[in-house]
Design a protein that fits this description.
54 residues, 0% strand, elongated, mainly alpha
Length: 54
């Protein structure tokens, strides 16, 4: 019974921490361009100025 007295507040605190982290990521723009990173990963073009000489 005493284990529940520790586990329930810990679970609530971790859930609240996860919610705060999600809201922070949402407000800082982490979810603005969901498809852009996927398209940039499969692009064949080299970025301008950073391409090594061939």
């Amino acid at each position: 019974m005493t284990a529940l007295a520790w586990l329930i507040p810990c679970a609530l605190a971790l859930g609240l921490l996860g919610l705060i982290a999600f809201l922070w990521a949402l407000r800082s723009g982490q979810f603005e361009d969901l498809e852009g990173a996927g398209w940039r990963a499969i692009q064949d073009e080299e970025p301008d100025g950073d391409a090594p000489p061939r």
